[in-house]
Amino acid sequence: MSPEQKAIEMGIEFPSIEPGYLNLCIKSGNQLFTSGHTSDIKGKLGSDLDVEQGYAAAKECAIKILQSVHSSHGTLDGLRVIKVLGCVNSTLEFTDQHLVINGASDLFHELYGKDGDGYHARSALGFASLPTGPAVEVEVIFEIKE
Prior knowledge:
Layout: H1 3-9, E1 25-28, E2 31-34, E3 37-38, H2 51-73, E4 79-89, H3 97-117, E5 121-127, E6 136-144
Parallel strand pairs: 4-5
Antiparallel strand pairs: 1-2, 2-6, 3-6, 4-6
Helix pairs in contact: 2-3
């Protein structure tokens, strides 16, 4: 089953996305670069939210990214996940940013294969704050396979 078929089976929808102030997904050569996509879940990990809630927020970001990629590229198929950058709004004492960003990575692994096109490089970083207060912001680089 293709990544797009898997996403549809999981209930991920692909609404029409109107262009905004910034490009949510831009093609350069054979790569797609996404802007940072933020969670609707607000708050700070380590005080307001726990790892499970952060994981859900990261997964939400990944779904938004897939929607932007689909809107820009027309499909989720024929792609390889290259790099994931996860930014976690967290307290200074919180050290489980990597477990939070697993919410995004696990979705990419499920769609593209953990041992295949979903096996990606990743950074999971803690931030004192993120613009507008989301729990998580994620950006991704995809390769368009020839």
